[in-house]
Design a protein that fits this description.
With 299 residues, the protein is of the alpha/beta class. It is 48% helix and 14% strand. Helix 2 links the parallel strand 2 and strand 3.
Length: 299
Amino acid sequence: MTPPVDLLRSWLFTGGVDTRSHEAACACGADVIGQDLEDFTPPALRPQAHALAARLYAQWRAAGALAAVRVNPLDPLDPLDGGGFADLAAVMPARPDIVMLPKTVSPEQIIALDAAIAREEARCGIAPGSTAIVPNVETAAGVVATGAIVRASPRIRACLVGAEDMAADLCAERGRDGIELVYVRSRFLVECRAAGVEPIDAPYTYADAEGCERETRMARRLGYRAKSLVRPEHAAIVNAVLTPSAAECAHAQRVVDAFEAARARGEDRVNVDGALIEVPAYLNAQRLLERARRLAQRP
């Protein structure tokens, strides 16, 4: 993926044939835009969606986003299943940057997808290994297997956790505060970080901007640097929350300067605005400043 995956803050899903959402996606500023051939595309409309792929991906790249596609689930025992394998064969000539696999629950599914992508890359003259895979973990079984899933292919540098399907699988009651998914979000993030893969938070599926900002801030607090979304108007909110602000950078710089001055005096810690700054806080401040610098330099 280009730019680096940790700088891809907003991952927008659009309908397979929803031209109005396609146009809004181009203008919203999302870092990744994906054509959803699964739940957002009725089966009868998949051929029409396939035919749109080349034009859509070119438009999204021209708008500065990476082009992604979410195919339908694969059936490794039936290559002619008319689902995921058929989606892949139809859209790979359009050269998506990223292929997403919904409802991933096992590494075997990833191994099958990796092999299928490799065949399509060879058929379409695409550089081997250049198409990324982003598994979508949307069930309890998938959360438990996340570590094995993300280690199943070198194409995987990010993984996404779902919201609606996840809540349904858990028999949880959905709410705007998202409290029913806090454990899932936390465990998923830990599994991804342990494997060296970037976790992508679940989308905020309600319409209000305030709720989207609140949930994105909560996700950032947990450690997320990326969030999926289903509404183009939420892209600017997600990007803003997941980009260090000028005030945050100024505070981080004061922490760095104060700690380094304390170290120069032979001290092991320093008080900044009432907070005791030790090595972990110093490193976090450095990390925030480096992220801000890299985001500012990103094309």
